[in-house]
Amino acid sequence: MAHNGESKPKFAMYWAASCGGCEIAVLNTHELILEVDANFDVVFWPVAMDAKYHDVEAMDDGSITLCLFNGAIRNDENEEMAHLLRRKSQLLVAFGSCASEGCIPGLANLYSKQTMLDTAFSTITTDNPGAVRPIIAYDMPEGRIEILRTLDQVVKVDYSMPGCPPESHQIAAVVRLVIDALHGNAALPPRGAVIGAGDSTVCDECRRTRSEKTITEFRRMATFQPDPVQCLLEQGILCSGMATRSGCDARCPSANMPCIGCYGPAAGVVDQGARMMSAVASVIGGNDPKEIRAIMRGIADPAGTFYRFSLPSSLLRHAKV
Amino acid sequence: MLDKVAEQVKPFDPVIVGFTCNWCSYRAADSAGMARIKYAPNVRLIRLMCSGRWDPQFVLKAFAEGADGVLISGCHPGDCHYLEQNYKTIRRYELLKQTLASLGIEDGRVKLVWASAAEGAILAEEIDHMVAEVRALGPLNWGGNHGA
Fold this sequence. Notes:
The structure holds 2 protein chains of 2 kinds. By secondary structure, chain A is an alpha/beta fold.
């Protein structure tokens, strides 16, 4: 399996703390997957083929040409694999929102481990008569992992590719670029770059019409039928388009759903949630603190909304618990 | 060991970062100085052209890099040098406070204070008040606080 294709560059894909959606997005590139097979020797891809960690350990350092690493670093197994694949790979790509920004699993950083375990194992809906609990920490010489981290907080990554999951046409473009670069027909972007996305915002790609309207009330999707043409934010729906990186072709707003921020912070934005707060505050109507507070009460779960995909990569990274 | 004991005995001196407006609160701090009004030396004032230049990101960065509290100060509503930017400050401040509450950060660590150029005494009093409040809350120590 692993060592028979010396002439072909080697490809690996791994999942750490993730849902598996990134692998499906790769398979959604349809026939391009055959090009991957034609151009690469797939040496490690737990979701698609059988391989053991010791097979990876046995490979030469730097022998994997391209490794798409999806998933965040949640536990010591994730961390160990991040270091191992970093060592074995020439190009390590933080693939998808979990590896790049922490994503939905990163919202765990809003709570203590105790709170999460109580919710998962000891609420009234849980059938757990023996009150069984997993061991939550193991003391290693390196210390303990306390919060969820992104891949680049653990190892150096060559590129980041945002999206939950990355759009299939973007994956296809990136894979083609790497193949072209391997054949000497294209140059790879500078190391550290965000690939498979734009530099602008989702608002820039959104085809809805904007006027200069202020919001006097936030509304939720379940309570009314939004107008299909007008900007969703102007209709009172919290949309993350203005702080989120372009590259998805504004798919959610095109389907009458607000942007939820999965492509991470736009180029030049350090903290996606702070940028969201700043932008949302600018469109809220009213100058009286009482009135402003009343409008803001319509925002359910501000931290979870503004940092839905980027809490672990934000300035604060986690809540005080 | 003795060092650790000494560390514990040392009283906590909070670090407060203060963002002030060029046209009012920074001058208020100046006038407090000229009038020889004493206030707690814990605050590090940073001058902006307007409180409307202040951004929630400044507070998060200050906390992430070790501040225990952040003071934002500008012209009274209606008195903005740039007409209405301080109303945006109010909105950003309110939204930030809501978000910080979900992040478990105590209310007293961020404060918005209006102070005109003539209100040095008021600004000094508010700074003293905030320093006492943050001192009572204790260190934020963000870098070392990972919440097991």
